[in-house]
Structure formats: C-alpha cells, structure tokens
Amino acid sequence: MTTHENILIGSDSSASLAAILKSLQTVNQYSFITATRMSDIIQISKSVQPVLIILSFRDNQNIINSLLSYNSNFSIPLLCLRQKNEHRELKIKEHIIVFTQSFEYGVQSNHLSTNIQGILKLIQHKATSATSCTQHSLLSNDQTKDLTRFTLELDQKKAVLDKIKERIKQLYADVDASTKAQLMSIVNTIKMTRNDRKHWDDFKRYFENINPNFLKTLSEKFPCLTAKDLKYCCYLKMNMSNEDIRLILGINQESVRTHKYRLKKKMVLKKHQDLRNYLQTFAS
Fold it and tell me: Are residues 218 and 159 part of one domain?
C-alpha cells in the first residue's frame, strides 16, 4: 500500500477550507490534513512533518510568527493565500520559503491545484538535488521564490489578457468599421504581449539555475533544434503534462503530439523510445 505524503491546510473559515479542498481534488497523490486553530497547526506540523503548509487565515503573518516562535528552525515551505482585506506584505525570515497567492484567484478561478503542483515539483526537485549535489546546483530560497513568483504572475497575466481579448471579440460585432479596426489592433497587441519573448527569457534563466547543462548540451548534440523545440524540451524535462504544455503554448492537443513526433525524428530516437523519459535523464 502506498503511503502518501501530507499537505496541511489551515484556515479560520470552514468555507475557505471547503473551497481549498474542492480545488485540490486533482492533487490526488497527497493526503490532506486540515486545521482551524493555530495550536493545531503547530502540533500537526511537528508530528506529521507535511511537505507543504497552506495558510488561509485573516492574519497569516500571526500564524507564521507563531510557527517560528515555537520552532526557530522551522523549514516547511508555506503557501499563504491572501484574502481581499490582507494588504500588508508578509515579513519572512530568510531561511523560510513562503509562496503567496490571492485566495480569490487561486481557489475561485481553479488555478490553485496547478500552482501547487508546480510548487511541489520545485520542492521535490530541491530535495532530490540535496542528495546529488554533484549533478545539480541547489536552488537558493530566493531563486525558488523568484521562479514560483514568475510562474504565478505569468499565469495571472495570461488569464487577464485572455479575458480582455474575449471581451473585445464580443464587442466586435456591434461597432462600426473604424472601431473594429482599432479593436483588432488591440487584440493583436494582446497576442504579441501574451507571447512576449521576455517571458521565455525569464523562464529560461530560472530553468538553467536548476538544470545548468541541459539546454547547452541539448543544443550541441542536436543543433537542428529550434528555439521552439528547446522550449518544448524544457517543459518535458520539468515533466509537465501535455495539457499544461498545450495551455502554455496556446496550441491544441494534436499540435502537441505532432511536435513531439517531429522532435523524436530530429533526435533520431527509435520508435519505442519515449521522448519524455529520454529528456528526463538527458544531461542530468
């Protein structure tokens, strides 16, 4: 029987707890423990040692302070879901990894499960790196925060731009020709912004901190690979699903499969060789 690792979810609102649990239904490889009181969170974090603690309190800062007061060496990563009325910036000790996200955006927009999967992959990767430091450089706390912050902000930005674009398309049929031209100009600008090269450059910089030799070695071994090919390979190296890749690249599932097939041909992989597995072990 498989023993699942635990994620501790703490909130002073039963409605918030229910919403968080509902949004995490797809994160089925972990067991969830809930708590509504500060004392319970402290006790559970000590006895169970969860891989991640999700906090959604009216005053997350107070909970963090209590955890640190109880244990100055506290090191469990935290994800704080900010409420609408929580405007002050969290004050965090340097050795603590804390991710923050809007409760409304994460839970009500169903982005929480995707973001938590990303956070857990980062945590898992860091743990793996600790046992094989000759192969990978450890991520510093700041690097981990930067990568996650970048991922969340990019996800949020794309979602907002997509909503604006769809709204413009709805208005398109009811305006005159001159206004239509202006609206289409805005839509085209959004498309360009959504696929801004800077997003890739930022991602690439953070990615190479985790996999310093991957892109260089891959490009040297397969000089025929395009920038788009390399981007796709990075996502596979991160073990992202086809659905995640489809959403990030803005393409359909058939295009994902076609790109995978073409990559295998460029790399001269045999029919039985799995591209994802090949890249997982490449330059590692």
Answer: no
Other CB atoms within a 10 A radius of the CB of residue 39 amount to 10
Q: How confident is the model at residue 79, as a pLDDT?
A: 86
Domain boundaries, position 191? 139-210
User: Residue 229 pLDDT > 80, yes or no?
Assistant: yes
If asked whether residues 15 and 118 sit together in one domain, one would say yes
pLDDT of residue 71: 83
Residue 109 · residue 87 · CB < 8 Å: no
Question: Final residue of a domain: which of 85, 110, 138?
Answer: 138
193 and 231: one domain?
Answer: no
pLDDT in tens, 41-57: 988 888 888 989 999 99
Last residue of a domain, one of 160, 190, 210: 210
Do 28 and 48 lie in a common domain? yes
In sequence order, the β-bridge partners of residue 19 are none
- Reported pTM: 0.47
Report helix angle 214-221 to 227-237, nearest 10.
130
Provide the b/e sequence for 243-267 (b: ≥16 CB within 10 Å): ebbbebbeeeeeebeebbeebbeeb
Residue 79, judged by CB atoms within 10 A of its CB (0-12, 13-18, 19+), counts as buried
Mean pLDDT of 103-114: 71
User: CB of 227 within 8 A of CB of 259?
Assistant: no
Confidence band for 160, pLDDT divided at 50, 70 and 90 = low
| Among 13, 3, 59, residue whose Cα is nearest residue 34 | 13
What is the number of domains present in the chain? 3
Query: Three-class SS of residue 39?
Result: helix
Mean of the per-residue pLDDT values for the chain? Answer: 75
Number of DSSP helices (H) and strands (E) in the chain, helices first? 13, 5
Q: What is the structure's pLDDT at 85?
A: 62
**Contacts with 153 (C-beta within 8 Å, 6 or more apart), sequence order:** none
